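Lecture 7 notes: from sequence to structure.

We start with a single chain of 399 residues. Read the sequence below before looking at the structure.
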Amino acid sequence: MNNKKLLIIAISPVGDGLSGGDRIFIELARYAAMQKIHTDIVTWKAGARMCNRTHLNTSPYLKYVNLHLDLLDTSSLAFSYFVRVWEGILWSLSYSLSNSSKCVIYSASDFWMDVIPSLILKIRYANVIWAGTFYLAAPNPFKGYNEGGKWCLPSAKGIIYWLMQLPIYWILRFFSQTIFVTSEPDVKRFPNQHKKSKVIVIKGGVDLQIVAKFQNQIGRVAKEYDAVFMGRFHPQKGVLEIIDIWKIVVKSIPNAKLIMIGDGSLMEYVKEKIQKYGLEKNIILTGYLLDGIKKYSIFAKSRIVVHPAIYDSGGMAAAEAMAWGLPGVSFDLEALKTYYPIGMLKSPLHNNKEFALIVIRLLSQKKLYISEKKKALKLINDYWDWEKRAKVALQILYE
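Now the structure, written as tokens:
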């Protein structure tokens, strides 16, 4: 009998979105349960809903430990944050581990409500292995998400985010045995000061079996959209920049259509900018879409994927589209050099005109398009299979 245990602390999810870190812990839990590793996910009702939307079903080897925080759906985000931290602390002080030497604790984010309970359990049970995650470093508050750009007056939100992450960085560095990051450049953030700690790159992945299933179900369809964007409507993701870029594309290709999958704090700004530029017929907004036929049909009907992030440690949303044979275009961020070495053409950061020209070339030059499409498919099939990624991660955790 397999007596290994994986304890995933994931009290951080809120709303209806799904971050890259959320996707990683969900798929890690799915594969661990398949390998008959007893897996508990400590979360609250928003996290449980998110897992259910991704069809992460309970089994003899997978169960949820739900914190009962029923009033938080209507609470402010700040209040919700600190109540979840407090409830996580109370839970970690009362939780009992019967065989700590066979247990791995995985904190699903670098937020306090996932890290502090993990730290408490690590202190209480010295034999457990703690795998922390540090998937996105808070930006310098004097530059914000404007990586490589000009200095700016810091916002209160930016300063708070940076200050709150700073102690987490040092906690992970000195108390966790393994730290997962999402790109090779992030390894440099953790110099080999703590000899017992290993920094591991885990880039996420794509469920190629699910892709193949829906490709067979959808079949061949006509291309309706010239490009697709998928991601949070957040300053980091370049959602306002892509509107400026598409304005340039439309000057050369008047009927060019961009479809944007996602939602977030910038949704109203995106709508205003689309209306300001008169691009209502050229840009379609879908809101957040669950995994399923509607989202995958959009991939099947699109020609390319645009990933205009201006501050990122990776980003696996584009990989989902690339699995459908969509070549990509992005800004030339340091992390993306190793994340997408082929199949994604890159523009200098903040050069919207060059980004647009690359899009236009991909859409108008058949030979270039076919070449990049083949590279995109090769990259995903060779390196982005979720099962392979999860297998390697679990091998590292239980060495």
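The chain has two domains: 5-205+386-397, 208-383. Keep this in mind for problem set 3.
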